[in-house]
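Why should sequence recovery work at all? Because a backbone constrains its sequence more than one might expect. Tight turns favour small or flexible residues, buried strands favour hydrophobic ones, and helices have their own preferences. The token representation captures these environments compactly. In the example below, the structure is given first.
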């Protein structure tokens, strides 16, 4: 079963009590996704489909763009893939940026993710230490290679959900697409991953035995059609030596899918 601490309790900073917002709405009101904020940094619960920082083509507003509008200047500490949801930190001043960047480099931050993967791993817990480098041909894609950068991911299978499993990952390094690449490497790619898995959306008709399409729908809407990965928890100390344990609950799309998978195992 899912461990109780996978979902936030009242003692931890969460955005779970705030209404879920679409990408457009949240960019108008960042308070709906703010987990914590002080004079030095801000922690946000990034929805899937929103850019962490501007892309090269400036195609749409990013979280950083909106923070700059609000604060005048902001510093990138780390980033999440567009389709990955969950906790992300931004610094409000250069000193805080330097401090947190060092925390990431020295692996002083504990970073946990929740993901849905295809199948069931042979071992309930394990470590994946395969080195990662950029694909020599396909730009923006990573690949396992002995000449790549050292990479380490720990995992724990929290629940077997039939065709899929709910897995908790701990990142010990911060390589691009690390969890996605490592999951593929052990034969259990992240659900709906177009680069390292089959990229196919999850349909209720494939889960529910007696599925019937609603009279109002001409075609079935996917339950999930984005990379099923969520930045769930960050544990760290700030520059004043204050301890933080920030948690962002699973987003609605992943929660709904997990509920259906449980019902129809």
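From this structural description, the recovered sequence reads:
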């Amino acid at each position: 079963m899912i461990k109780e601490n996978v979902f936030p309790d009242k003692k931890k900073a969460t955005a779970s009590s705030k209404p879920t917002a679409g990408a457009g709405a949240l960019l108008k009101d960042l308070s709906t996704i703010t987990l914590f904020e002080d004079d030095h940094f801000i922690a946000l619960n990034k929805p899937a489909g929103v850019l962490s920082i501007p892309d090269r083509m400036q195609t749409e507003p990013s979280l950083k763009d909106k923070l700059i509008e609000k604060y005048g200047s902001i510093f990138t500490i780390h980033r999440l893939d567009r389709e990955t949801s969950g906790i992300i930190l931004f610094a409000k001043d250069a000193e805080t940026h330097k401090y947190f960047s060092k925390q990431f480099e020295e692996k002083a931050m504990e970073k946990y993710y929740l993901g849905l993967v295809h199948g069931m791993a042979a071992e309930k817990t394990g470590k994946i230490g395969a080195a990662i480098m950029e694909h020599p041909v396909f730009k923006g894609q990573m690949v396992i290679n002995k000449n790549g950068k050292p990479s380490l991911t720990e995992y724990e299978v929290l629940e077997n959900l039939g065709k899929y499993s709910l897995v908790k990952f701990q990142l010990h390094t911060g390589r691009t697409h690390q969890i996605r690449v490592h999951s593929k490497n052990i034969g259990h790619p992240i659900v709906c991953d177009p680069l390292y898995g089959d990229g196919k959306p999850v349909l209720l008709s494939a889960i529910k035995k007696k599925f019937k399409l609603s009279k109002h729908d001409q075609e079935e809407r996917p339950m999930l059609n984005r990379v099923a990965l969520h930045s769930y928890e960050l544990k760290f100390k700030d520059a004043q030596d204050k301890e933080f344990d920030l948690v962002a609950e699973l987003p609605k799309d992943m929660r709904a899918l997990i509920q259906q998978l449980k019902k129809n195992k």
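A few observations help interpret the result. Residues 94-105 form the longest helix (12 residues).
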